[in-house]
Every structure is written in structure tokens, then in C-alpha cells.
Amino acid sequence: MVGEHLRHSFTMMELKDLSQPGLSNGDTIWFMSSLHGNSVDDQGKPEEFRFPSTISQGRLLCLQGNHTHNGTMNKYGFAWKGFLPDGATYLPGLTLVADNYWDYVNPWHSMSALINFAAWRVDNGCKVPARIVAYHWGEMVTKMGDWITNVLHASLGVKLRPDTLSSYGSGPVCFEDAIVQRRGLGGMSKERMNRLFDMVRCKVYQFCKVPPRSFVLGGKDGRIDITLVARSGPREFSNLSGVVSAVSEQCAMVKGCKLDIVSIGNLSFCEQVEVMSKSDVLLTAHGAQLTNMMFMPRGGSVMELFPKGWLEFAGVGQYIYTWLADWTGLKHEGVWRDPDGPDCPYDTKTQALECFLFYKDRSVGLNSSHLSSWTADVLERIQARRASSVADHILETSCSCDSVDRFT
Which of 191, 253, 187 is nearest to 226 (CA)? Predict the structure, then answer.
């Protein structure tokens, strides 16, 4: 009778609780809103929940529903392992569960939501997950981009595709061991960020068979490699040849300086990693391709350019790559903002979003004298950093979890 009581006491709650804010700095959030009190701890870890644990009174996490357009139709609850609800499926192994305000295709959006699972893994015995269940606003996600799939494969030791729970029937699916993360990297200390990205860089180099490179030594010949990533379409350079000319002129004045112009869209994941591993300076317009800076050697520099209108209307999102440079041990060398272009045709006070969308994907122009001066200053600072460095960042020949991970 006790067992039957425990079985029938199981209740399901909405994954997306519309009574709660979607983004919050407090303990409440609309995804699994009953979970509180684990946002940030004194060790600088991000918010994470593990089940079963004391927070669930020793019960397993169960999920039900795979609706892709209405998160309120998807449910969660907690059940005793020996007394699962009628029709439930029990899944052994480790399950990763994430909710993302944005998407899982864009490299920045997906990385910032999921890469913290790699940190959890290193802290917990290098356990290899069996599956990942991903949500966007509580709505089931059916696919992730190839870029994040490869990063997770390298970092977690297994290739994962989103499990939509559709092959287990219509009842609840209950997990032997589950980790839930809802805020991505939010709350993680800089020290832990640096360790995390060092580890991910090391694992991705191994995965792609790319040798680590010393920033201080500049490779074997002491050169400085500038990589200019040219976007095509949104935020492309309106005068690419002029940009190349201005940077080339300054590069030619520095012994060993070399400029490469690449289009990330034409490269495989590991080709992107190889390009970044050889880059001392990354110069490009604001965009998701900048997420690849995490594969540059520590100590490198990033030069970021914006179309008109971003400073006034883009909000904090325009600073994400400044943050990423800091997290990955790089030097963000500031930004250039194109002052030229039409005025916003909307009311700038009451229609700020419309103004941002008006400017968001405009091309990036050129101030050749400023770009020349900026490039010269960056090259001079790189030389000074190299000259003053008595020891390079350690080049890792082995990475965390090597005893478990085998890439073929």
C-alpha cells in the first residue's frame, strides 16, 4: 500500500511556467520553475541540478512530452526509482538536460548554453553521458548545429544528438542520473571559465589532430599570423579589398607577419580549428564566427568591427566577444564602429528594437587610416607581450579525461 501511494503521488508540472520571467538574475526562471537555491555557489560554479539528490528527496527526474512549439505542454516531475508511475520508461546512464533562451545552431548561442557540461564532467570523474535532451523555452529541440555537435563530441567523449524522447511511448521517461542546466555559463567565475576553455581547447585540438601552438614563440619561426575572417551577406565588409590593403600595409612592416583571408563558411569544423590554432590576431566583423576565437592560442588578440547603430541599440549582446576573449585568455583589442549610414527611420526612443533590426545586418565600412593605425598598435603590443613573457602558457600534450576518451 505504501508503494502504491508513492506511485500515485507522482505529479507532473509544466516545463515552461508562464507565471515566471524567461530571463532572471534571481532563483526563479520559467524552465522547471520549482527548482530554487542553486544559482551560484562559493566555488564559482554555474547553476546546476543533479537528480536524484536531496533537492528531489532522492527521487529521479522524469520528463514527458515532446512538443516543439508549446513548452507548457511538456512536463517534468520526480518519482521514486522503485515506484515509477504507470507507463513510465526508465533510462539508465547519465542524461544531460538543458534549456536555452536562444538556439542550438548559432555557435555562440549553443556554446554558451551547453559547454558548461564539459566543466561538470571534469569535476565528476569524466563520466560519459548517454544522451542529451535540449529545450528552447521549454520546447523540445530536435537538432543541434554541426559546430556545437563537434565541440561536445570532443569535450564529452561521445557524439550526441538531441534525444526527443519520442521512441519511449507516451508516458513519462525517468532517468537514472540527470544533470539540469538552465542558465548556461551564467554565474561561473572567470577562474573556472579559464580552466574550462583551456580544457575544451585541448580536447578539440586532440579531436581534430591539431598540434598546440605557442603564442610567445610564435610557432617555430617566430612569426605573427593575422587571420581576417570575411563574412558574406550580413555584416560583410563593403570594401574588403580596402580592409586587406590597410592591414597588409602594416603587416609588411613587421618581420614575420603574415595575413590570411578566410571565409569560415567554406571550412569544415576541424579546418576552422586549424586556422584558429595558427592565428595570433583575429580580425572580423561582429558575428558568430568570432566564437572560434576559443581555439586560438592563449595570448592572441581580437579586433572586432561593427556596423552603424549597434552601440545605441544592440544592448549587452554587443559585448559577448569581449567577454569570451577574457574567458579564453585572449586580448580583446577594442572595436571599431562604422559611423556612416542612414539614420534610423523609426522613433529611436519608443522603437529601439525596430532601429536595431534596421541596423543589425548592414555592411561594415572602412576608415583605412584608423584601421592602419589600429593594426600597427596591435602588432606592437603583441611584440611587447612576447618580449616580456618569461614563460609561455603550458602547451598541453595531454588533456582531462584522456583515460576515457578515444577519438577515431
Answer: 253
Residues 81-126 pLDDT 10s:
988 998 999 999 999 999 998 999 999 999 999 999 999 999 999 9
Residue 347's domain comprises 216-388
Domain-located, residue 171:
yes
Q: Which stretch of DSSP H or E encloses residue 191?
A: helix 190-208
Pairwise CA distance, residues 127 & 227, whole Å: 36
Residue 208 lies in a domain: no
- The verdict on 182 and 264 lying in the same domain is no
Q: 138 and 72 in contact (C-beta within 8 Å)?
A: yes
The helix/strand/coil state of 272 is helix
Q: Do residues 167 and 304 both lie within one domain?
A: no
User: Kindly report the CA angle at 235 between 230 and 239, in degrees rounded to 5?
Assistant: 60
Q: Report the alpha-carbon distance of residue 104 to residue 136 in Å, rounded.
A: 8
For the chain, give percent helix, strand, coil, nearest 5: 35, 20, 45
Please, what is the Cα angle at 81 between 79 and 85, to 5 degrees? 50
pLDDT, one tens digit per residue, over 364-398 is 999 999 999 999 999 999 999 888 875 455 566 68
Query: What are residue 179's DSSP bridge partners?
Result: 50, 96
d(CA 37, CA 317): 27
* 140 part of a folded domain: yes
Integer Cα distance of 166 and 179 in angstroms = 20
What is the amino acid identity at position 211? P
**Grid cell at residue 7:** 506511485
In whole angstroms, what is the distance from residue 250 CA to residue 258 CA? Answer: 10
